[in-house]
Design brief:
Layout (H helix, E strand, L loop, with lengths): L1 E3 L16 E3 L2 E2 H9 L6 E5 L4 H7 L1 H5 L3 E5 L6 H7 L9 E5 L8 H13 L3 E7 L5 E6 L2 E7 L11 E3 L2 E5 L3 H11 L11 H10 L5 E5 L12 H15 L1
Parallel strand pairs: 1-4, 4-5, 7-12
Antiparallel strand pairs: 2-3, 6-11, 7-10, 7-11, 8-9
Length: about 240
Amino acid sequence: MIPAAGRGTRLGLDVPKIMAEIAGGVTVWHLLHRALWPSVEHVHVVIAPEAETRFRRLAAEEIARGAVSVSVQREPTGMGDAVFGASGHWESHGGILVVWGDQVNLSGRTVRRVVDAHLRAPGLTIPLVPMPDPYVEYELSGGRLLRVRQSREGDACRPGGLSDVGVFCLETGGLAAAWRDYLAAAARGALTGEVNFLPFLAYLSLVRGRDVTAVHVDDPDEARGINTAADLEFARRLHAGRAG
C-alpha cells in the first residue's frame, strides 16, 4: 500500500514525488516497485486525482497483469486518510505493508526482512535506523512503542534517535476499527493540523496491545525520502553510482 497523493509542488515538480524521474526514464515508482515486488502479493497506490491518468500510464504493464491497482485521494488530508480511505483494497489480506511514496532509497533486502519478521510475529513491524539528526524519532520499551516524536509537529528529536525508513507492516484484523476509534479522540498535529498516522502506531501498541517488532536497518540512506530538492539530487547521485 503506497500513499502517494502529494502534489510535489514543494519540489517544483508538476507530478507527485512517486513519479519524479531519477535517471533515464526511471522514476521513484520504478525503484519502489523493484524493491517491493518479490515480497508482496499486490501493490495498491493512492494518487492525487490530477495525476491518476499519468500514473496509470506509467504503471500500465503492472496494472494490466493485475499486480497493481490504483485509487484516488480527493484531498491531501494526510497519510492516515489515504491508507484507510483505501481499506477496501487491503482488508481481505492478513497483513498490509505501508510504504511512503517517496522512499526512493529503500532496499529490497529491507522489505524482505520486514515481511519475514512480520510473518514470524504478526502485530506491528517497523524497520528502524539510528540517525544523527532524526526527522522522526521512535521511543520503544519492552516491546511497546511509547511515542513517536515528529519534527514537522514541533517535537524535539534527539541526536542518535531511531527513525523509520517509511515502511510499516501491520496485521489487518481490527485495524480499520482501531483507526476509527483513534480518530474520535486523537489530537491534531500542533503545526500541520492533521491527524497523523505515526502517533496512531503508538496508540495501536499502548492502547490496543500490539507488540512491536523493530527490524534494525544498517544503512541510514534508506531513511532519506524526497522532501527537498537536495533529497532528490541525492537520490539521483546514489542511483547513478549504483548503476555505474
